Fold this sequence. Notes:
Blueprint (H helix, E strand, L loop, with lengths): L14 H4 L3 H4 L2 H7 L7 H5 L11 E7 L5 E5 L17 E9 L3 E8 L7 E8 L4 H16 L10 E5 L2 E7 L6 H7 L6 H15 L15 E3 L5 E3 L4 H6 L7 H4 L9 H4 L7 H17 L10 H9 L15 H8 L10 H7 L8
Antiparallel strand pairs: 1-2, 3-4, 4-5, 5-7, 6-7, 8-9
Helix pairs in contact: 7-11, 7-14, 11-13
Keywords: ATP-binding, Kinase, Nucleotide-binding, Transferase
GO molecular function, one term: ATP binding
Protein name: Protein kinase domain-containing protein
Amino acid sequence: MSTSTLAPDLVLPGSQAxxxxxxxxxxxxxxxxxxxxxxxxxxxxxxxxxxxSGGIADSPSHGTSMLGTPVRCPDYTRVRNVETxxxxxxxxxxxxxxxxxxxxxxxxxxxxxxxxxxTKVAVKIFRVVLGEILKxxxxxxxxxxxxxxxxxxxxxxxxxxKLGPGLVTPWYSNGNILQYLRxxxxxxxxxxxxxxxxxLRYLHEQDPPIIHGDIRGANILVAMDGRAxxxxxxxxxxxxxxxxxxxxxxxxxxxxxxxPEEFANDLEGGSIPTDVYxxxxxxxxxxxGEPPFHWHRTDPPIMRAICRGExxxxxxxxxxxxxxxxxxxxxxxxxxxxxxxxxxxxxxxxPEGAP
Length: 355
């Protein structure tokens, strides 16, 4: 993966040649795979950025595109409170694609600071920008920006890009928790599980409670001090909203972490009991290194197993002083019988009221 530090937001070597490869195909997935870890030149981007029907109208304001070229910025004042979630479009530069999936692009970038050196940030660009999804995005981002907890990824602001709106958060060099555990397999795992519990308990204790809706390894990052932090809460509900939304268990490949009632009811992104079910799954995955239902390799048998109420792990195979206290009850087929995150935190030895 190529990394250049503070060079201008410009082109790949031989950018004209690039137009005859991935860009000519007009397929964003193929293009992103071909350009992973590289700069994307302006001409290539133009071939891939036809505004979707029903998207945000242009406003008279101007900003900087993901390639550093001047563009007319969408008017996000229609869908959010600018003072609450700052527009960082003109402060973000030197962007490099690091990953992509069905609904967004993940970029590494830098943010200009008024004092001191630029800081590295992560930018998530959404490819789905229809009006109903933007309204949901507005609600979730206002909530996210107001949160302050050491186990919650802070939202820094928004960016306006030709490919869609984007979120800006700090850059976590350790990656997500599964990547971290593969690199540092001998690290103590119980503190990571406790960090996730603290963050999820904090969300559930808000008034009204905040449902994460997509607890899994990819949505748990690890800070430089080894602390686990939750990200992307509420985004499953955004992606499920409106006719252009995608089922969250499809795009995120989170089927293994879904509670049985999520297939029987329209929960619009989950509930407190489904978060608890998913937390028990990620706890077991962190402790064992195996995903839920690891004996199944494809989705159909996993879905059948979940709907039959089968447990995602064999509890007696999980070696931990905590497992018998909450894992079994957390996977109860009756959501009302599952413990709360406050109860689980007490079992894990996290003091009441501790941050």
